[in-house]
Design a protein that fits this description.
Elements: H1 3-16, E1 21-25, E2 28-32, H2 37-63, H3 81-88
Antiparallel strand pairs: 1-2
Helix pairs in contact: 1-2, 2-3
């Protein structure tokens, strides 16, 4: 995703997830209802905000190659999406 696509997703698509949504996979669809949507929305918002920061850093580096090459919010190796969801949503451990 480029910067504009990420900004659009954060402004329109992520808030729209609050009513519930469907995730399409090659094995079928997963339905997330409005009750559980906030948990997934937070994870998606956090990931997109991190990607947006990376895109902004990249944009600045292209404009000024002397900018440091470090990117904010590095991904942590070995941390699964399930770990992120359960860590950020109280009560989700009860659903294991």
């Amino acid at each position: 995703m480029d910067k504009l696509e990420i900004e659009y997703a954060l402004a329109k698509q992520v808030p729209d997830m609050a009513r519930g949504f469907t995730i399409a996979t090659s094995y079928g669809e997963l339905h997330v209802g409005a009750v559980d949507a906030p948990v997934v929305m937070k994870v998606v918002r956090d990931l997109l905000e991190s990607e947006l920061e990376r895109a902004k850093v990249h944009e600045r580096q292209e404009a000024d190659p002397e900018q440091p090459s470090t990117t904010p919010y590095p991904r942590q190796p070995g941390v699964s999406i399930f770990d992120v969801i359960t860590r950020t949503a109280p009560g989700m451990r009860d659903r294991e």
